[in-house]
Amino acid sequence: MRLLVAALVCALWTGCANDDPEGPEIYQLTPAAAAAGATIDVVGFGFCGELGVGAGGECVVPPAASVRIGAEGVVVRAESARWLDDRITVSLPDDLNVGVTLVTVAVDGVVSNAVDFEVVP
Q1: Class of 2-120 per CATH?
Q2: Segment 49-81, tens digit of pLDDT
Q3: Are strands 33-35 and 115-120 parallel, antiparallel or unpaired?
């Protein structure tokens, strides 16, 4: 059932182009635009990586896992408030530049597809 839902969500959203079926995949960002310091949800699949899901349902996040915001060499890491296999809740860094940028998730050395995100004033 989860794969069917994932396929349907992916069909409706652009950016579902991760070539590694075992790696993380971002389907959408909620909201798609927010100010620096705001909290957003990264919705997708495969965010737990090799260590899997812990007893409380949250991922046992390996130290190499991160949400990355930025493009063209300027990348910052967002602080995670909650990390599940299909959803990561993060606080955007306060020092983000206003404008359209990219968000990716890296887990176990594998980087997800990039999804557009707009940082607003």
Answers
A1: mainly beta
A2: 887 888 776 877 665 688 989 876 567 787 777
A3: parallel
